[in-house]
Structures are given as C-alpha cells and as structure tokens.
Write a structure and sequence with these properties.
- Residues 1-28 are annotated as: Disordered.
- The structure is a single chain.
- By secondary structure, the chain is an all-alpha fold.
- It has a domain at 39-106.
- It is built from four helices and no strands.
- It starts with a helix and ends with a helix.
C-alpha cells in the first residue's frame, strides 16, 4: 500500500483549493468532492470512510445490545443511532441492515 498517496489524498481533501467568488461575491470555504454517484463503500474521500465506520460501529452495537429484536424494532434503533452521528439512511437500507442483524445466530 502506498501510504504517501493516501496521505496526499487526505491532505487535498482536508485543505481544498480556494474557489473564485460566485455572482453574489460569496466564496466557498468547504468543498466536498467525489460524492456524486459514489457510494459509501467505494468513495475515495475521507468523508466516505467516516460514514462507513459510523455505520459499521452502529450496526455492531445494535447487534450486541438487541439480538432478539424484530426487524422493525432494529430498523428504528439503527435510524435513531445513525442520525445521532449525522448519517441518514433510506428505509430500505435500514431494513436490509436490520434483517442481516436478525438473521445472525444469537
């Protein structure tokens, strides 16, 4: 693994280049790139990695604390906990994670 390339990518993401002012004279100090069409799993940005880690942590916590819960209850719990981290998932995604938790032998 080329750690130099990873460090360079993190540096570019953490310190985006300054942009020119728009029509109203406003400049953007925050630029999030690489998110259009990318999923959390394949996003090359630091933000994508943070989202993936937050989702994994939350799924593991819910799986340990509520192993015998129903799929709907697990989906609600995942939604509440992920929103605390600033992650908003669709109901389909929540139910997929909840179904995988309920299908694991407890």
């Amino acid at each position: 693994m080329n750690w130099g390339a990873i460090g360079e990518r993190i540096r570019r993401t953490a310190h985006p280049p300054r942009t020119a002012p728009d029509a109203h004279g406003m400049t953007s100090h925050l630029s999030i790139t690489g998110l259009s069409g990318a999923t959390v799993e394949n996003s090359p940005t630091v933000l994508g990695w943070q989202l993936a880690q937050r989702i994994q942590l939350t799924v593991k916590q819910v799986a340990k604390q509520k192993p015998a819960a129903s799929v709907d209850e697990l989906a609600r719990e995942l939604d509440v906990r992920l929103r605390r981290f600033g992650v908003v998932m669709t109901q389909k995604e929540l139910h997929e994670h909840a179904a995988s938790i309920s299908a694991t032998p407890g």
